[in-house]
Each structure stands twice: as C-alpha cells, then as structure tokens.
Amino acid sequence: LQGYASEMDNPNLVHLIPSALQNKKEILFGNLPEIYYFHNRIFLKEIENCIENPELLARCFLKRKEDLQIYEKYCQNKPRSEALWRQCGDSIFFQECQRKLDHKLSLDAYLLKPVQRITKYQLLLKEMLKCSKNSEGTAELEEALATMLDIIKSVNDSMHQIAITGYEGDVSELGKLLMQGSFNVWTDHKKGHNKVKDLARFKPMQRHLFLYTKMLLFCKKREENTDGHEKTASYSFKNSLKMSTVGITENVKGDNKKFEIWYNGREEVYIIQASSVELKNTWISEIRKVLT
C-alpha cells in the first residue's frame, strides 16, 4: 500500500503511470486498504493479547467472523485485478516502485497474499488443535476452525458465482448460495417427442449446479484461455428450478450416486449423478433443509 498504491499519487511518478491504469487503483488493489486496517487496528492487537493465554485465541476468530468476510470481496475482485495487471504489469512505473522498495518479487506476488492468508488460518487452527487435545479451549478451537472453513467455502462459492453468464435475473435475489459443483445430468420430459426421451436416457449432460435457498441453477461450464494465461471458467446459464416447486427422490435404482429432482408433479425429471456417495448425501441434506 505504501510502496505502490500511495506512489500512484506521487506527482514525480505520475507521468510513468500507464494510461490503462488511470483511475483504476480500486480495481488493482481491491479492498486491500480495508483488510490492512482491520488487521492493523483490530485483529493483530486481539491476537497479541492471547500470547500469554493461547487458549483464548479461538475466541478472536469467533468474535471476528463477520469482519473476516472482507476477504470475500477481495477474492471476488481478484480476476479483474489480475486482468489489469496483465495489461500493465510490465510498465516502467511498477519497475520503478519495485526498485525503490528493493523487492525481489513484483507487486502481483503481494496481491496474492490475502488469498493465501485466508486459506492459511484454518491450517494454523488445525495445528493448534493437534497440540491441545482435551484441554481448555479445545471446543472453541473446533468452532473457530469450522468458522474459517465456512468462510473459505463461501469465498470459493462466490468466486464461481461471479462467473455465471446469461442469467436474466439478479443472482443476489436468489437467497444464500448453499452449494455449487459439477454433475452428470439426464433429463426426462413427459412432454415432447418420445425419441428425445430415449436419447436423453443414454448421454448425460455435464452441468454445474448452483443451489440457492430460492432456486437451483443449471449451468454449462466453459473453460476460456485468457491470452496464454491460466484458464478461467465461466458458467453459461441453461435453466433454473424454483425450490418452492421441486420434489426430490433420494435413491435411483442401480446407482447409489444418483438422485432425482423433479418439477411439477414429475412432468420434468432431472437425474443427477454425483462423483461420490458422500457428495450426493451432502447435497441431499442441503436440499432437504431448503424444502422443509
């Protein structure tokens, strides 16, 4: 923040800033200032207070569960930030900032730190749990670990969610995103031609499902190469089912990884095959919760 973001306002360096970067500080850095202030003014002090009493550490995470959601915003902005960096990362302005800081690594390595940090907490809490079997504060550590895993899951889910394309409505109105993942899907429609029905039985479609409290979205995953860099996935919207009108059949004959979701008194039936029985059961229990 000091070596790069502040330097963008330095009158001596203004002429070096590439035009693609003009007025785009917020895109490049996301809400990094917010994350920095939270750690500097609040979280660090609270953790330092636990040096003498490490068993109190878990409470810091539980107390700050809401605050730690700021990482979600950072991660959601990350693809935009990376695209901008690819455009102008090799400019003289950044080279000059890096030289002044005497950093071996360029700015993009530091912009990755918050993403790495949010995934690191759960590892640290797991390590602490190993060292504190049945001692004071163990239950709270377990709760803190579950909290951090929850935050990582919602960050991960939201990263997929922002890549949905072609959905006419507003995704934010569908309620909480509970689960997302890829499945084999067969459809069976009562209406329509019998031939279609027969074909549908054999070849599954690959679909990425997003389960919200109000809606289940079926999307098709597309991998796109971005100018020679890592593939970015996007999910093109195919169809949706209102959760208030669906039914579920937990077991399908002949395959314990399959379940059915049907619509309108079995007028449309979707046979969904998970990659494992555990995954199927997790999805069924989430869907059950919504339905009840």
Overall structural class, as computed from helix and strand content, comes to alpha+beta
Shape, principal axes of CA atoms: flat
| Gyration radius, rounded | 24 Å
In CATH terms, the superfamily of the largest domain is Dbl homology (DH) domain
Task: Give helix and strand order, one letter per element, not per position.
Answer: HHHHHHHHEEHEEEEEEH
Number of helix segments?
Answer: 10
Assign the CATH class of the largest domain: Mainly Alpha
Query: And the CATH topology of the largest domain?
Result: Dbl Homology Domain, Chain A
Number of domains: 2
Low-confidence stretches: none
Average pLDDT, rounded to a whole number, is 90
Proportion of strand residues: 15-25%
Name the strands of the widest sheet in spatial order.
Answer: 1-5-4-3-2-8-7-6
In total, how many beta strands? 8
Proportion of residues in helical segments: 40-55%
